[in-house]
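Complex record, two chains
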Amino acid sequence: MVGARALPWRARPDLSGAILAVFAVALCLLVVLPIGWLVVFAFTGRGGGFTLANFRLLFSDPAFVEPLFTTLTLAVSVSLICCLVAAPLGWVVARTDMPLRRTVRFIVMASFVTPPFLGAIAWELLAAPNSGLLNQLRRASTGAGPEAVLFNVYTLGGLVFVVSCYTFPYVFVLVANALDRIPGELEDASSMLGGSAWRTARRVTIPLALPALAAGALIAFLQAMTLFGAPGILALPAGFHTMTTKIWSLFQYPPKPELAAAASLPLLLVTVVLLRAQAAVLGRRGYSVVGGRSGPPRPVALGPLRWPALALCLAVLSLPVFLPYLALLNAAFSRVPSQPLTVEGFTLEHVRFVFLELSATKLALKNTFLLGLLAATSGSLLALVISYLTARAAIRGHRVLAFLATAPIAIPAIALGVGLFLAYTRGPVVLYGTLWILLLAYVTIELPAAYQQLQAAFRTVSPELEEASRILGASRLRTLRDVTAPLLGPSLIATWCFVFVAVVRELSAAAILFTSETKVLSVLIFDLNESGDLAAIAVLGLTMLILTSAVIAAASRVPGLGGPLRVRHY
Amino acid sequence: MLLPDGRARAAGPAPGKITPELIEAAKKEGKAIWYTAVDLPVAERIAKAFEAKYPGIAMRVERSGGERIFQRIGQEYGSNIHAVDVVNSSDAAHFIVWKREGILAPYVPEDVALHYPAEHKDPDGLFASWRIWLSVIGYNTKLVKPEEAPKSFADLLDPKWSGKIVKGHPGYSGTIMTATFQISRDLGWEYFEKLARQKVMQVQSSADPPKKLALGERAVMADGNEYNLFQLKEKGEPVEIVYPTEGTPLIVGPSGVLKDAPHPNAARLLQSFLFSVEAQQLMVDSGGLRSMHALVKDKAGRKPLREIKLMKDDPAAVEKQADEIKARYSKYFKV
């Protein structure tokens, strides 16, 4: 046996050093290069040379200080609201006997496909103070005067609401997945000792789910802080800036990239600090319930509350999903987007305009889906190899790879966009103006999520089968291809879909990096919003949803790999 | 390439005719890319007319606000990306900059040489006024009675319009940049300082305020395109135009061919087409714009330019003050 194991080892030279070097260099190019340029520019004056002037301006000029506070208010409020909504919803779905639990879960996932900027535009249609459909409905039903405004989306409150709608799925998934994993025995023990259902929930279930909720709160905070899409639509009419819209406006003429770089750094810094704090708090948590075989979770009987609970879930889901898509459908086929659809008001004019007249449609669709496929494929493959190397401790120094692959979590997409722009508009490699720069951005942004999903998947696959393959003489790569990948099939597909969806809905980095030849759907919609072409946006948005769903459906049917989908987030 | 020779340099380049050779060469290139600030449906209609007239040449329209086009070309040219063939901005000052930077190609379409007044063409033949329009006040007739509608810019400062006004942004729109310059020159910046206290709904493009009026989202627009209001009004939407008593800002949107155009022949063919009677009449009739072409007729029912009291345009001054105007505007309006 010793000989058999030693033989292939001697027959092939140890390539781990080389592999590590290749991947480390690749990851450095992806991550370190743009961030490096960001830092260099932030400390560079207009005429070159080291300076702190950018930061002095940043922290003294009200034009920057106000957006900073607005952004903090936004992020804290969104984080709180998401936890308040997602925690009960996650619990009801994971731990009770509410009817249609799986459907509710599926719809929450579906809301993830909606880009926040599209959601924001849909909410403009619903809740613009005067023309919003909901405000019109309210006035029509109560006979209130034209001054009566139920809900004004062009306010900080409106922005908080819209961002919460499209951030709460992150928290929901974390909480629901954590609750899924809590073994039924612990709850049984509690009830056997005389604890009531509610007491069990309070004393056992909730404490066990708290770390997931804390992680969710953090992710919601970071998402809201670094989001560009929804503020990009709503902040201007509301009359304020957030940090991300401010950074974007610094790219308008006359461009001030050094200020944009300086303004990106606080976002980066806050993210790093919070992630470190999370690691410090949760890294030593004593709630390990993994290990040993455990029974399925015990559903709590809601009794007569089952249907009200479902009604509440559906009411919550009407906000990010049902109402916005109804508004988009209405706008797509109605002569005037703000008028409820009637038979005589029905028109296919907007559909015709988008597909027959709008000359950017075809190009944007092609670019978006090409980039989605490329980024999803290369991103999941990269994540697969790296998580294999780290999960199996296959090479020395694998921890460096793990760190580099997770590092982009800390980079807000808009900051990465600025960094990539600075890095690849000057030599030696000029990528600005090509699809490659967008591909780099997308892969970098999505790598951490892809890596963490596959890393988790590897933990569930026992190494014995791989060892058998290795003993029979297969190389590591061949083992990865023939044994590990098929075992990981469903997780791999889920990761692929996750990256694909994330790319299609990405706007922050794309808004900085696109050129007319490399325009993507999200940027096209953002541009159409500039001139207020709401109907065209509605048609494009619905097209985007249909095509994305079709790609996901097709991907989950790939022979040999397909399986039930479960999108998980970092 | 079929470029006009430079012998007639002193009087500008010789007029560019649409010859069969030019059409053939343009078809070989197969594509024309047009950066324009004109409202998207108008732009696409013109593009479709061009494609119908010269089959085999695919048009791509890149529409965004004039200021964003200026930024985009600056950013792309700064990275040596030459993607644009023909450019039209809504801020004539941009052409002063582009001329100075030497990125425009001399090319005078025959129609421009024969039918355009001297003050609407560049003496060196680099650009000419492709379209003319106004930035006007407007209101929604369902929300405002004609007798209560504002008659002047000063009327907009009445507290009764607080929270009811929508306006474009000079940081994105060339039209609004030009209008902001003319209004601040003639009425003083105090006007904007006071207007900013009216809880104005701020949008980007000058094409958006008319659409917000039509939606019923706001009752009054403080600035925005006259041509969008013409279109909406003629479609039966409840909007009305007001030419303010102080004078109406006049906007000139020139068009020029880029020297490094990726499709140089298609670019010249497109430029010639844009200034043809056909395209100009289309732009006027269905787009609501105004033309400087001597043979183009006004559409009935629209107030002719000569009957409107205009503010004077001054691209050279806009060019000098653009950055200051943006900065000052942001200070008052917070965005």
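Note: Residues 62-95 of chain A form the longest helix (34 residues).
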